[in-house]
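hey all, quick one before standup. I had two proteins in the batch that finished overnight and I want to keep them in one place so we stop losing track of which output belongs to which input. First protein below, input sequence then structure tokens straight from the run.
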Amino acid sequence: MLALKDTVGSGRLDSRWLALSALRIRYQLLAGLLMASVLPAVLRGHGDLMGYWDSTSGRSTVLGTAMAVTLGIAFLRQLTRFPGVNDTYYVLPSFGLAYGTMMLTFFLFRLDYSRFQFVVSFAIALGLFFVLYLVARRFEVYRFAVLPGVDLRGQSRTRNVEWIRLDQPSLPTAAIYGVIADLRRDLPEDWDRFITDCALKGVPVFHVKQAMESLTGRVEIEHLSENTLGSLLPNRAYLRIKELADWFGALVAIFLLGPFLLAIAVAIRLDSKGPALFRQTRIGYRGKPFTVYKLRTMTVDASERAGREAAITRDRDPRVTRIGRLLRRTRIDELPQIINILRGEMSWIGPRPEVRILSEWFEAALPFYPYRYIVRPGITGWAQINQGHVGTEHEVLEKLHYDFFYIKNYSLWLDILISIRTVGTVLSGFGAR
């Protein structure tokens, strides 16, 4: 999301401003270190903090928990900077990863530490930041001042956002997070001067396209100028690192999940006639066709039927078998694509690969559709956790907006966020057909 900044304006401080101020990193670090690092040390030392600090395990444990709190805050802020994120969901993963990293470090380097203090520190950190984000979320409203002529297309998709339309070049009395302008338009001189004054006063000024992308998690497709095209190029170094991590993850998964997939395959054969494995040609990385593997969820005659309509799965599609509905709801039918990952054709996370006949249709109907081939397709992705399954041209265009946002923000943190939210998607059955 747009980075949390000091609200500006001449309005009086209110409860909303005070609650959101608690999310500033300086306050988070101060509260976290005092409550989750110093307080457990006082408890462990029975009130004698300095005496406990002088002990070998005491000093190392205090420093270790302080580092864990700092890492936890850093991880949490990275995961919650993307749109559509419920901050409280990521407190446990963020601090679990941070404290787990520190415990592993202590174990590998054989450092003395207090298990009691680490456990108490972890529990306090979870409780503190869960309450902190829960309270802040209740009052969270992003208030922006909007210049005349700004097209707020997609504003209906934003949540907890208040738009204040300006009719004169002066800041509103209400506290705001920033000013939104269309910086590609030729503005009157007084409005140009107003934007300059805002920048000099430290008031953030956002281009409308940048603001809407950050608030909705979608990249609107209008045209791809050289500048836009360059901004959508994914990080090449991370592409290579992710490819290697995908391969090792798939290698481990194929051994762990092999017996489970064999049992599911037997159940599929008993449920309906036909092979357990379904093969289909799809378009993948750099526009190259490849054979994707899935557990069969439809009757044989339906899965072999050709044509564009047959390639689209509708709600409550009668072609789906009994066990197929369960497999689709839990996404277990996608697991054989581990083979595709081992072959370098897919990734764990990325835009979903489309059937060739649908890809040809979408390429003819939608501008810039092939640009999604710039990264490897994935078993799960940003569009899947935000939108679910699609079946119409309009829904595909929506998915393309999400895919472009993923490519533009291609990073480890976004992949971690998608991984965590995929678990919730699987448990809820969101978007399954």
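OK second protein, same deal, sequence then tokens:
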Amino acid sequence: MGRGYLFWRTPEGRPYRKGDGRHTPTATLAKLGELASVESGKPSYRAPHFPQRYHLVLRSAATILDEDGKELNETDTWSIVINAVHSAIVESGGRKPIDPQRFAHFANAIAAEYFRQPVRDFICVTTLSIKDLPVESIDITDCVVQKLSSRREEFRFPKVSNDFTADERFRKHHESTQYLRVVIEAKGHTAYEAINKALDALNLLRGLWTLCERLGRWSMHFGLHPHEPIGIVHLGPIHTVHHPDGSPAIDNYWYEPDYVGDRPLFEPKKGWKEIEEFRSWALEQMKGLSYKQQLQELLAQFTNALGQSDPNTAFLQLWCILERITDTVGRRYDETIERTLWSYVDRASMKEQLEHLRLRRNLYVHAAESGSEMEQTVHVAKSFAEKHLLRLIRNDFDVASIGEYGKFLSLPTDVGTLKKQRERLDRAIRIWDKNESSE
């Protein structure tokens, strides 16, 4: 059999790459097989044994990785997983536990067939909260972003558009928005893969713009007011995917569930020159990074966090970014704090600010208690995250992965201690060089 594409996630959400079967949801697979019968060559479940709760487990636990180790989009992943479930049930005849190895066999075979499909061209259409693009065309990752003067006839909505135009917020945006309409050219084995690539590219673009424009900046509001997102360029509420001729690629659309209305258009006070220079520099820097994909995901997560209208959500997402950067997901928060602090000179006051973040995180998660100054807390979290993101783009520590970056941050900060460690390492290298040369 060929290479494996199916992986199960660890509790931290990462694909588990060892072949020992750990993290496989064996009980869920067994239950799905036991509850199903086979009728007319297809699995069948009789009330009240609906499989949805078990499907939720598989949706969370399973992931499909492509040839480059990147996760496939959720829609196509689920299609592969559920078809593998059905194939395993039909093979066994039903009313028997699904064998995890047979399930993996079917999932890998279906995934291999998926990736053998030809890669096709698609176009995603959406809107951005800017007056105009800074340049005519922007190449980012494997996509191209350009403005669309209007949603012309050739880029018509899919038939299900009545679903979202029935919503007053979406209809108002569609009819009178000042947001800029943009098209993103993307490739994919399916329309689902293409639009996910397009939105990932757009989020990365927004992330780089946001990092540059908001780096080191802080805003304050006084009196009673709704929270205003810190982010600068926001996505419109509706995204559609089309064939190159403009016809809908599928009768479906994507929407932003947190959309509450249009935000003011972003126009740089000093023009786009500095922001675009930063964007070009950052993309060039990331080309040679072995952790480029993970860093791009963090930048997209950063801009999505700053775009949240709920400051509690924004803060929690920024805290998660700090956990990922410091490689402390699932570990004690003491480690998160110590590693975040590593490059700061004023460690005492910075540590107390990070302790404040930990306290706010615990009060909200464990007691549903939101502070009255959460907007300012978001700014504090942003100030820590953005500095580490910038270091990762520059690769200041010359590391090969974000995990290695996190381990670098666990080194002592005392120069004397570091020198002693270096002496020990140099001594160990000399010993093993001598041992190897004598063999």
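Flagging for whoever picks this up: The chain has 15 helices and eleven strands. The CA atoms of residues 173 and 262 lie 7 Å apart.
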